[in-house]
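In response to the reviewer comment on reproducibility (Comment 2.3), we provide here a single inverse folding case reported in full, input and output, so that an independent group could reproduce the run without further information from us. The structure tokens appear first.
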């Protein structure tokens, strides 16, 4: 495990955010190698859905091999109220660590939808926000359940958060047929994002000081989406191509119009790149069935076209 190793691993999975990946790898590796009493930094990822925030955090925990738990911050409630409390999250992290408290305290907690903590006037949300900010700063949490009795200190725990923070995105209408709302500029630097978050009243500046680093994950360009689709380590298309070659001796080929049609579908989806793997699975489903039903024919090529996206039964197997 090394900084270079972590950075390279993330860049095999997440595309289009090289500078942000460098910083994440730097901060997490310094956290990973910190001794007791040395600072551990927290990170907030800000950007639209489907830009790679969650995938980045998951990949980092995989590489580092540390206990990992993710949940939506918007679902967290104070202890004693029906729902998921931060104590429940900690108990889950403890389980993931094999009930090793020291290991759990050096694990990674990822809270998504962090921006929604202040999107309600309910006192319960204000209470949860204070609890999570205490967790971020490094607090002590007694865990007293039917199963566990221990005290958890979050000082050395890796904390990563993410949110869309929709109100901070400057948007404009494109001109032309089927115009849609698009981001007119990038999110900016850590300091610029902080100012936007404060001005839109998500958090106060004092509250944001608890979070060491804020990184913007800007909307992915069409070219970046193409790279993820074809070459991403966790891309369903990339994995299927290798699998079909190994198992069937088949060369899986995607014509340019297939890629374009797939990208069109992704851009129409509200979840962005999150939907890509499911979409690829659907388009390959019938072709894969054909391969299994005709293994004795020793086909050499499977070619996907624009028609395959519209009708998975239309493909060229020869």
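Designed residues, in position order:
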């Amino acid at each position: 495990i090394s900084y270079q190793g972590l950075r390279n691993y993330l860049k095999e999975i997440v595309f289009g955010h090289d500078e942000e990946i460098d910083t994440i790898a730097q901060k997490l590796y310094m956290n990973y190698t910190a001794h007791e009493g040395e600072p551990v930094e927290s990170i907030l990822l800000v950007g639209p859905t489907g830009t790679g925030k969650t995938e980045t955090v998951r990949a980092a925990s995989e590489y580092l091999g540390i206990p990992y738990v993710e949940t939506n911050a918007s679902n967290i409630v104070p202890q004693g109220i029906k729902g998921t409390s931060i104590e429940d999250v900690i108990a889950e992290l403890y389980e993931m660590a094999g009930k090793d408290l020291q290991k759990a305290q050096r694990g990674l907690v990822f809270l998504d939808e962090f921006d929604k903590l202040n999107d309600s006037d309910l006192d319960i949300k204000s209470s949860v926000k204070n609890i999570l900010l205490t967790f971020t700063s490094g607090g002590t949490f007694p865990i007293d359940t039917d199963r566990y009795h221990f005290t958890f200190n979050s000082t050395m725990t890796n904390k990563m958060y993410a949110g869309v923070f929709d109100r901070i995105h400057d948007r404009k209408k494109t001109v032309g047929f089927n115009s849609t709302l698009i981001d007119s500029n990038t999110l900016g630097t850590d300091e610029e994002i902080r100012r936007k978050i404060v001005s839109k009243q998500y958090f106060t500046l004092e509250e944001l000081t608890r979070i060491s680093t804020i990184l913007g994950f800007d909307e992915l360009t069409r070219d970046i989406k193409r790279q993820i689709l074809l070459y991403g380590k966790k891309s369903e298309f990339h994995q299927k191509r290798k699998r079909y070659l190994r198992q069937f001796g088949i060369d899986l080929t995607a014509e340019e119009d297939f890629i374009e049609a797939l990208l069109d579908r992704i851009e129409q989806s509200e979840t962005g790149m999150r939907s890509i793997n499911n979409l690829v699975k659907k388009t390959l489903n019938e072709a894969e069935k054909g391969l299994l039903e005709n293994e004795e024919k020793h086909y050499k090529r499977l070619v996907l076209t624009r028609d395959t996206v519209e009708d998975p039964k239309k493909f060229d197997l020869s």
